[in-house]
Amino acid sequence: MRRLPTELRRVLQPEESRAHQLLHDRLIVIGLVTLVVWLLASLAMFLLERHAAGSDIHTGWQAIYWTASQMTAIGSSFANPRSPTAYVLDLLLKLYAVVVVASLTGAVGAFFIHRKDQEQAT
Question: Which residues are CB-contacts of 97 (< 8 A; sequence separation ≥ 6)?
Fold first, then answer.
């Protein structure tokens, strides 16, 4: 735990280690892709649900909130989607969230393996 601040600083400003650079790059890609997916899914959900009977999504902000809560698996107090296409989008968002968690786990695991290999090589 004492090394955690140092390791985080090295990931945020990777200058000396290939392992830190790889983790940094992977986190940036995952973050940017997730941002794009979030915004596109929010727009799609708004367009699909704003006029659906019984929908709780009537504004863009509600769509953004709903999408973020689905992507983080927290859920929200909003009703489930009403349109069939929105149900599919909801399922895809949940699958995407699983893929992101698996990717992050893999990236961090690869970081530790790569860093250990670098330390043994020196």
Answer: 70, 71, 72, 73
Kindly indicate the confidence band of residue 30, based on its pLDDT and cuts at 50, 70 and 90: very high
- pTM for the structure as a whole: 0.77
The DSSP-derived string for 86-113 is HHHHHHHHHHHHHHHHHHHHHHHHHHHH
Contact 20, 11 (CB under 8 A): yes
Reported as a pLDDT band with limits 50, 70 and 90, residue 18 is: confident
Q: Which domains does the chain have, with CATH numbers?
A: 33-121 (1.10.287.70)
- Give the pLDDT of residue 10: 67
Highest mean pLDDT among 6-15, 28-37, 77-86: 28-37
3-state secondary structure of 1: coil
Cα separation, 80 vs 88, whole angstroms? 12
The answer to whether 80 touches 90, Cβ cutoff 8 Å, is yes
Q: What are the structure tokens assigned to 10, written together?
A: 């090295």
